[in-house]
Write a structure and sequence with these properties.
Pfam families: MFS_1. By secondary structure, the protein is mostly helical. It has two domains: about 220 residues, Growth Hormone, Chain: A, CATH 1.20.1250.20; about 200 residues, MFS general substrate transporter like domains (Growth Hormone, Chain: A), CATH 1.20.1250. The chain is about 85% helix and about 0% strand.
Amino acid sequence: MNDIKGTPTQGLFGATLGFFFGFAAVALFGPTAAKFKDILNLTPQMVGLLVAMPALSGSLLRIPFSAWVDTTGGRKPFLILMLIAIIGLLGLSIVIYMVMFNNLRSGVYELLLLFGLLSGSGIATFSVGISQVSYWYPQQKQGFALGTYAGVGNLAPGIFSFLLPIALHKLGLFNSYLIWLGFLVIGTILYYATGKNAPYFQLKQKGLDEKKAIEQAKSLGQELFPSKSLVESLTLSAKNFNTWLLVILYFTTFGGFVALTAWLPTYWKSYFNLSLVYAGLLTALYSILTSANRIAGGVIADKIGGANTAIISLALMGIGALGLFLANSIGIAILSEIVLAIGMGVNNAAVFKLVPKLVSDAVGGAAGWVGGLGAFGGFVIPPIMGEFVAVYKSAGYAKGFIVFVVLAVVSIAIAYYLKLKAKA
């Protein structure tokens, strides 16, 4: 027992640190999309697909890699995802070098899509870290631990969205990518040094049988252990209609969060003609507010119920989206962005408050579907908004926010329905 490495605090710190750096790809694509658009003469639809690629792998890989934690602990899945992301950013850096210094044009867009897909695997570390942290902490402390993990880790896009335009202005596109690649490598090394599996997984790795590993891990304070029926949990939750309604709610606000983190830099630059630095600053404002309010949203949901919190927060989101749709001045647009961010962040917390109440017989499986497929909105939404730009030209950057107005209305109806079922 004395050979067990780490403490719950160290487990939380390591996972949060790794997730923070793994989220770099989301922030990276947004501010550089305008550069790609100019260099390669991309259409709005092509830009929308490009900025969405990291979200595709970042959402879909969450489900299998989170499941893998139950058999091996979090370290191996986490490190593999980070290494794939490094390959993606390295590939992007090479392609950009060839474009900038060797005038390469043929096949560049396809390579950007491929390496963008790989770089997005760092986002999938979210679900791995959730499982890793959960195994470290007793149930009465998991709310604090998971709230801290998600809230702090999700600050990354906001911080990087602010820093990257400054780097682009001072150092250029290629050097900025090299720096971001360095960030990811450093983050991977730091996770390798600090990320620890919970006692049960360390004991199993030392060769202890199931029963002895559980007994010793319990004596060290571990309360949660892997389910022997992960596939059954996923199957059972998939058969519960509530699971898919919760997927839609999370698709709207967390998928929307990922989408807008990538889309807003282009919106601010192309619609209001702001510099990349100011566009990055306003994107950072949105991203940080959304992430910080996720922590507050958990507290509110504890007091008034998850469904009530969802209804109120989605209404705020709808108001903010409508403001951006109608905005004819930068002041109204910024105010609307702030309202939108508050609503989306609070709802992200409300959704996971509802999961155990509405899918009580398969919480783990439901969380996997909600977290993975909900994040898929980050891939789906940007290309749709790109279509508005293709049709309405510059005005389409504002008109595209009608997508979020519609999503808000649909989600409010779903939340009200769930409130009647959950009596929350």
